[in-house]
Amino acid sequence: MLALNNIETFYGGIQALKGITLNVEKGEIVTLIGSNGAGKSTALKSISGLVKAAKGSIIYKNEDITKKPPHDTALSGIAHVPEGRRIFPKLSVKENLLMGAFSVKDKREIDERMSKVFQYFPKIKERLDQKGGTMSGGEQQMLAIGRAMMMKPELLMLDEPSMGLAPIIVEQIFEIIKELNQAGITILLVEQNAYQALQIADRGYVIQTGSIKLEGLGKDLIKNNEVREAYLA
Amino acid sequence: MLNNILESIPQVAIDGLTLGTVYAVIALGYTMVYGILELINFAHGEIFMTGAFIGTAMLLLLTGFGWVSALPAIVLLITVLLLTALLTGLLGMGIERVAYRPLRNAPKLIPLITAIGISFLLQDLVRFIAELKKGNYIVTGPSLFTHQIKIHTSSISSIFNDASIKTSFIIVLVSAVIMMVVLDFFVNKTRWGMAMRAVAQDRDTASLMSVNVNKVISLTFFIGSALGGATGVLFAVQYGTIDPYIGFILGLKAFTAAVLGGIGNIRGAMLGGLLLGVMEMFASANLSLLTGGVFGAEYKDVFAFIVLIAVLIFKPEGLLGKPVAEKV
Ligand SMILES: Nc1ncnc2c1ncn2[C@@H]1O[C@H](COP(=O)(O)OP(=O)(O)OP(=O)(O)O)[C@@H](O)[C@H]1O
Ligand SMILES: [Mg+2]
Fold first, then answer.
1. CA B306 to chain centroid
2. How far apart are CA A120 and CA A117, in angstroms?
């Protein structure tokens, strides 16, 4: 479904990705783990088009999306929940959700998608008129995922959804990620929380200073000694 | 003395509100662009001025045709307003496309200097064309709506004097209010208005929601410039004579109004504009009275700016601005 071939990405003179090759098949949960500054977020940004890959190609459903601007990538069915949630702080919760469905003009379709979001996140429904910025961290993460669901994506990319959240909320979020996957959404999950991510993932990649160090099935990586030492200590 | 001040209040209110709505609508252009790009578009005052010239040229041209004079003046004015808004809107959009967009990621000072450059360019261009066509860069438009109306505010209470207004005042006031109400509705209640606010808050994330950020920025420039240009026409109708340098002072005042209300905040710009207009007119009517003749009406701007500085000392983010706090 999605394939990155030898992607190299630069920020000015700094090379953040040094030739990343990975693929995601339809229906999978694939996780990308690695320590701070490894290039996980950059990989997602290269896919969604927020930064342009300098070399290599990104193929999504047989289409080369390497050079697509982010608003076009979004239209082709890839939703990117960025690191730090990035809720629009001065828009209401409802408007944040509506932004997710920006490309949809059919009002009924929008309502349908919204009630779908409420099924997963009933709490959001009570907060529709609140300003996004006044929500708690956990609520914002749920809103960010809900907003991405409003895009009705085929591929959902999540950048550290567990960041800064209490263990019980992390638990809930991972549960919902699994449910979304069972409902047919393919997931590419970036996490620091390697143990939990590998538990729900079909496959995983370990990225280190811009290169893929290891790849394998989630259940194998959990047992891998290198992974255990570096990320599960 | 208090009596004298009270007497003048009706006239001050009318003149102040009219001038204030002009400031307010121009301030919108500054504030919208700032809100979305953090760019102070100094060329905006010149867009206003260009609008005044385009409108005056059209009015002169149209009133030259015999059959047009059969039309009611208001129909003529509305046509000219809409056409001018369209043209200045496109001009503003073009300026962004050519001059600002290539500098989007440059340090903030560079687009600012570019904006000042564009100001000079527009001033000289308009001056050149005006001199070419009319032989003089100071241009007087056809006089329209000069009918005076007396308002008997003295009948409300004897402390007030009567006020008088030219019909053009009412036209300026009504048009400006309509522009503000429509804009407020657009920004707060429509899909593209919401996209505009989203882009202002977080450009990257908005683009992840399939919003074409460049399109939204173009739209912002179009709307701000269309409003500015239309206000230029209103100004020309109101004051009759225009020159290529009217945009400088008026732009500066409108920018001040935007800062006073809280730059980036649309309702703030409206409030700031109205306040500045009223303060200026109040000072112009009463300053010499208040200071026992030491400072005359010509010091009205000093008065207005002292108020501005006072507000900014106590509320640096402006009246309706929110203190900037980064939440991580
Ligand atoms: N906007 C930027 N400008 C310059 N360098 C950047 C920028 N964004 C990221 N980098 C650099 O690129 C490298 C990879 O960063 P990236 O954000 O992809 O890491 P990450 O794996 O997501 O880390 P974390 O787990 O801390 O989020 C880092 O060395 C970082 O300093
Ligand atoms: Mg990251």
1. 21
2. 5
3-state helix vs strand vs coil in chain A, percent to 5 = 40, 25, 35
Residues in chain B: 328
Strands (E), B213-257: 241-242
Every domain of chain B and the residues it spans: 2-183+217-314
Largest CA distance in chain A: 52
Q: Is the CB of A88 less than 8 angstroms away from the CB of B208?
A: no
Tell me the count of A-B CB pairs closer than 8 A.
68
User: Could you tell me the sign of the dihedral formed by the alpha carbons of B92, B97, B98, B100, in that order?
Assistant: positive
Question: CATH number of the domain at B2-183+217-314, please?
Answer: 1.10.3470
Mutate to test the pocket of ligand 1, among A9, A10, A11 (most ligand atoms within 8 A of CB): A11
- The 10s digit of each residue's pLDDT in A63-107 is 999 999 999 999 999 999 999 999 999 999 999 999 999 999 999
| DSSP 8-state secondary structure symbol assigned to residue B98 | I
The encoded tokens of residue A129 equal 């008129």
Nearest Cα of chain B lies from the Cα of A73 at a distance, in angstroms, of: 8
Question: What's the gap in Å between the CA of A206 and the closest CA on chain B?
Answer: 25
Residue type, A136: S
Residues with CB under 6 A from ligand 1: A 11, 14, 16, 34, 36-42, 83, 192
Chain A contact for B210 (CB, 8 A cutoff): yes
What are the pLDDT digits (tens) for B251-301?
999 999 999 999 888 889 999 999 999 999 988 888 777 777 777 778 888
Burial environment of residue B64 by CB neighbours within 10 A (0 to 12, 13 to 18, 19 or more): exposed
Please report the ipTM that was assigned to this predicted complex: 0.93
Contacts of B210 in chain A (CB under 8 A): 71-72, 74-75, 102-103, 151
